[in-house]
Write a structure and sequence with these properties.
Elements lengths: L8 E5 L4 E5 L5 E5 L3 H10 L5 E5 L3 H7 L3 E4 L2 E6 L3 H20 L13 H24 L5 E5 L6 H8 L4 E6 L6 H4 L4 H12 L3 E4 L2 H15 L5 E3 L6 H8 L2 H14 L3 E8 L6 H14 L7 E8 L6 H21 L7 E4 L4 H10 L2 E4 L9 H8 L5 E5 L5 H4 L4 E3 L4 H13 L2 H15 L4 H13 L3
Parallel strand pairs: 1-4, 1-7, 4-6, 7-8, 8-9, 9-10, 11-12, 11-14, 12-13, 14-15, 15-16
Antiparallel strand pairs: 2-3, 5-6
Bound molecules: 6-O-phosphono-alpha-D-glucopyranose.
6-O-phosphono-alpha-D-glucopyranose (G6P) binds next to helix 1.
């Protein structure tokens, strides 16, 4: 039986379905919140009466938080304000600066992490933010409610729910990878223990890929000799949503402009956040290797990198963005000729343009060093109209679903990635058609509704 989202469901996530800003008269204006979790869950939850609690991230959000739970844009929504410094420490230092790096294997181990006294204060802040959210659920959730806790920002919420509201059925869903037992040993022991225990206090913990669930289980096994309940439920894009964008006048105009830029050349595309885990630099270096080792492609192909800024509050991200710009400029200087720019790097956040490009690629490069799932790897095959080829990192969660068809990338192997790009460009029409049809089927096999139903079912499962 398919479970329904209803009034007795509470969702907890960092970004909410609504975010607030001030208009010129300093009045609060509500608009749709950003981010993948909201885009996927929002349409399924709107008008169901489910309650959604999310963090107040800006001054306007904090002002809106004073009103408590509001009904807006079809959501019963509560923006929850935590002291801004405490929130910043929890979000920047722990969620993004520690857990993100840990689970994506991004540590530069000779230098980082550094768990000093200041970091300990940030861990206390993370605990405090989690406790505040747990408190809100404890105070407001209807009897026997299902609680869907989203992502690594809220690993500890279940701890207090289990203690104070045993009637609730809470599941936790992690949208990023999960590290294995060796990596989790980098954390101070008490922190690793608290983190795992927080997750394990939910009825079940969900992941986009079996590999991340297994890592979590292995961490728990190593720590306690037993494993908590887990479930695996990969998210998929809503085809109707992205197709509506593809048919919008903005996207059509962007597509026409892209066709002009390409002028009949082949298109290698990537669409990503500017994010350390996405492996933009090695992607460019692999493309350069292709131009160097296969002169026949010079002037015949364009690499469009439609990437948009992320987390610019963290110095590592600012530095990475600069490196991305520098490497792309150097390659363009070295290989470009009048009339042909090898890399088109665009860093503006323009979803209609990304969608237009996804319809047109010959090769889609998705080469993260590690990724919880990677929705672009599914959006591409769903949208593409040219029987484009997907070159996919085996380190992306989506590899578990698409790996039987997509061309395999070892994201650390630059020469190997260049070889895969060359093979993808050289694939004949018949192979491309077979490849694209198979990918379309795999990418469209599930809907966001399936993913939500899996969480609701996990919450009702017996421990
Ligand atoms: C990626 C991850 C999500 C995460 C989000 C946070 O999209 O896949 O799991 O919630 O980053 O990004 P933010 O901009 O909110 O820090």
């Amino acid at each position: 039986m398919v479970a329904r989202v209803a009034e007795n469901v509470v969702i907890v996530s960092n970004r909410g379905p609504i975010s607030f800003s001030h208009d010129s008269d300093r009045n609060l204006v509500a608009r749709r919140g950003a981010g993948g979790v909201v885009a996927s869950l929002g349409p399924l939850v709107r008008d169901t009466g489910a309650q959604w609690i999310a963090a107040a991230m800006t001054d306007a959000d904090r002002e809106a938080a004073a009103a408590g739970t509001v009904d807006a844009e079809g959501f019963r929504f509560r923006s929850l304000a935590v002291d801004p410094d405490t929130y910043r420490m929890a979000y920047d230092v722990i969620s993004n600066g520690t857990l993100w790096f840990l689970h994506h294997s991004l540590w530069d181990l000779p230098r980082r992490p550094r768990f000093d006294r200041r970091w300990r204060e940030a861990w206390d802040a993370y605990r405090a933010v989690n406790h505040t959210f747990a408190r809100a659920v404890i105070d407001e959730a209807p009897a026997d409610a299902t609680v869907l806790v989203q992502d690594y920002h809220f690993a500890l919420v279940g701890t207090w729910l289990a203690q104070e509201r045993p009637d609730l059925r809470a599941v936790h869903f992690t949208h990023i990878p999960f590290c294995g037992p060796t990596s989790i040993r980098t954390l101070p022991d008490d922190v690793a223990g608290e983190l795992l225990a927080g997750l394990a206090s939910h009825v079940s913990c969900g992941f986009h890929a079996r590999r991340w669930a297994r890592n979590f289980e292995a961490c728990c096994e190593a720590m306690w000799g037993w494993t908590p309940a887990t479930f695996v439920s990969p998210l998929s894009p809503d085809f109707d949503d992205i197709d509506a964008v593809a048919e919008s006048p903005e996207s059509i105009a962007e597509g026409a402009q892209l066709d002009e830029t390409l002028a009949g050349r082949r298109l290698i595309l990537r669409v990503d956040r500017i994010e350390l885990s996405k492996n933009l630099l090695r992607g460019f270096l692999a493309y350069e290797d292709l131009l160097r080792s296969r002169p026949e492609w010079r002037g015949q192909v364009v690499f469009a990198a439609f990437v948009y800024p992320s987390r610019e509050g963290l110095p590592e991200y600012l530095a990475y963005r600069q490196e991305v710009e520098t490497v792309a400029a150097r390659i363009n200087n070295q290989w470009g000729v009048p009339g042909w720019t090898p890399i088109v790097l665009d860093m503006s956040d323009n979803f209609p343009r990304s969608v237009a490009a996804l319809q047109r690629y010959d090769v889609l490069l998705v080469n993260p060093v590690r990724d919880g799932l990677n929705l672009v790897a599914k959006e591409g095959p769903m949208l593409n109209t040219r029987n484009g080829v997907l070159a996919l990192s085996r380190e992306a969660g989506a590899w578990e679903e698409l790996g039987g068809v997509a061309l395999e990338i070892n994201p650390f192997d630059i020469a190997g990635t260049a070889d895969v790009l060359a093979a993808a460009l050289a694939m004949d029409d018949e192979d491309r058609a077979t490849h694209a049809a198979a990918l379309r089927k795999l990418a469209g096999a599930r809907t966001p509704r399936d993913w939500l139903d899996d969480q609701l079912a996990a919450a009702r499962s017996t421990r």
